[in-house]
Design goal:
Blueprint: H1 15-38, H2 44-65, H3 77-99, H4 104-111, H5 114-125, H6 133-150, H7 152-155, H8 162-182, H9 190-212, H10 223-251, H11 253-257, H12 259-274, H13 281-298, H14 300-310
């Protein structure tokens, strides 16, 4: 008697998951505003610690208010530590190192390759997220759209040091592995996974910050900077990672990584709305390409067009 192997159904994006992804992209795009204010006063690694510590505190308070005992999930401690290292400590540190000598445009383009690495790693390590032509074509369209949005100024930084470019690529690989690891927390509420990651990141970042920056001078930080730091911790980290882990659980690692294509669009649009920056022609072309890339990945519009042509 032959035994038939039942392959799991490939993960796809629902309409609700797309809304979550767009909201997450908007939130992480807005994080640049808060970080821009705070990093003028607070050293980068100290800011990372404040960000994850505030997020961890906010998430623990949220779980307590909902009557959820975080310590009931202590068996996932090592997994939470892995998420903290792969999703926060390593990429934040590598991005900071690369940012010291690379332009923001080039770093954004390199960071947008995260879905490519996630597609490859997911195809190797999972059974429900294989490479498809739609995914690959859509991601490449999205990356090309970001290159166009950044304009000629971004391309002038392509001659940056190889080690710095490799540092940013290393960060994107770390994000990709973190997203795959997050799939292992299928039965854990996203709020608990986010709390575990932020708690682990806080414990790891304390000695890292003290060794690199020394004890922070809290008295030198005024109320406006603290407001930015708190917004960065609560909105752009605590709430954002609840959304992120929710998307991973519902739609998979590859689809969750698509947020890196949306973040630059969100950052530019927010700059236009709140900072009076003007959109150029290449911005609109780039956004259109990114939109086409996301529609290609989704596949439903192309399927509807094909069905209409057949009818």
């Amino acid at each position: 008697m032959s035994v038939r192997t039942i392959m799991p159904k490939p993960l796809t994006m629902t309409g609700y998951a797309w809304l979550q992804l767009l909201l997450l992209g908007a939130i992480w795009g807005g994080s640049f505003f808060f970080a821009r204010i705070a990093v003028q006063i607070v050293p980068p690694l100290t800011l990372v610690l404040f960000r994850v510590a505030i997020a961890a505190l906010a998430l623990h308070l949220y779980l307590m208010s909902r009557g959820i005992n975080f310590w009931n999930y202590h068996q996932h401690a090592l997994g939470f530590a892995g998420l903290g290292i792969l999703n926060n400590v390593i990429p934040f540190s590598l991005l900071f190192i690369g940012q010291t000598v690379l332009g923001a445009g080039l770093e954004s383009i390199l960071n947008a390759t995260t879905p490519i690495w996630t597609v490859i790693i997911a195809a190797l390590l999972t059974v429900d997220e294989k490479i498809t032509a739609n995914k690959l074509a859509g991601i490449l369209l999205g990356i090309f759209g970001i290159v166009v949005m950044m304009g000629p100024g971004a391309l002038t930084g392509l001659g940056g040091p190889l080690w710095a470019e490799l540092a940013v690529i290393g960060a994107t690989l770390s994000y990709a592995f973190a997203t795959i690891l997050a799939k292992r927390f299928k039965g854990v509420p996203p709020t608990v996974t986010a709390t575990g990651q932020m708690t682990a990141s806080t414990l790891i970042m304390i000695p890292v910050m003290l060794l690199h920056d020394g004890a922070p001078d809290l008295a030198s930080i005024d109320s406006s900077v603290w407001s930015a730091i708190i917004a960065l911790g609560i909105l752009s980290t605590a709430f954002a990672y609840i959304l992120f882990f929710s998307i991973v659980q519902a739609a998979g690692a590859t689809n969750a990584s698509l947020v890196t294509l949306i973040v630059p669009v969100s950052a530019i649009l927010l700059g236009t709305i709140f900072l009076g920056e003007r959109l150029a022609v290449h911005d609109f072309i780039g956004m259109a390409l990114i939109g086409c890339g996301l529609l290609t990945i989704d596949g439903r519009l192309l399927t509807a067009v094909r069905n209409r042509q057949k009818a």
